Amino acid sequence: MSDFTHFDDDGAARMVDVGSKQATHRVAKAAGIVRMKPETLAKITAGDVRKGDVLEVARLAGIMATKQTGNLIPLCHPLGIDSVSIDFEAIDSEAIEIEATVSVFAKTGVEMEAMTAVSVAALTIYDMCKSVDRGMMISDIRLVEKSGGKSGHFIRGE
User: Fold this and answer.
1) Which of 63, 81, 72, 77 is nearest to 6 (CA)?
2) Are strands 137-147 and 154-155 parallel, antiparallel or unpaired?
């Protein structure tokens, strides 16, 4: 279990001690996709969803979730987030890609915060549109890029 930082040598769960680490500027970018019927995407982009502006509500939900990551994920450090941005792009007639970028000056990274933002934004889209499309699918939630800290710069696919 010694390869996994959240377990001690005996296999017991633990929060990683970051007390002696140097604080650095850290950025993480995550993305995910919500697939739906073309009619559902058309309603979202036209602002024709009865519950309101789906993407703005999803953006707000993702930002709020970012700040709660330490409460949601066991052993994840609570962080004072410096910035969060969430963007949406219709990548075809049946899918919206969500991208979240989170930054902080801290002793630990914000990968989990970025993926939490994407996850909750996607769930919010589902929740607001389920009355017209229960078949929506959330997929491909992933870390796209991270920088800062001892482990260096990561870019998916490189």
Assistant:
1) 77
2) antiparallel
Three-state DSSP at 76 gives: coil
Please count the other Cβ atoms lying within 10 Å of the Cβ belonging to residue 77: 16
Q: Which residues are catalytic?
A: 127
From 74, 83, 131, 139, select the one nearest 106 (Cα to Cα): 83
pTM of structure: 0.92
To the nearest 10°, report the CA torsion of 34, 39, 40, 45. 90
Judged against a pLDDT cut of 50, whether residue 1 lies above it is answered with no
Q: How many angstroms separate the CA atoms of 99 and 62, rounded?
A: 10
Q: How far apart are CA 30 and CA 52, in angstroms?
A: 25
Contact between residue 114 and residue 48 where contact means Cβ atoms under 8 Å apart: no
What ranges in the chain are assigned the alpha helix state H?
A: 38-46, 54-66, 69-72, 111-129
**pLDDT tens figures, 22-58:** 899 999 999 999 999 999 999 999 998 888 899 999 9
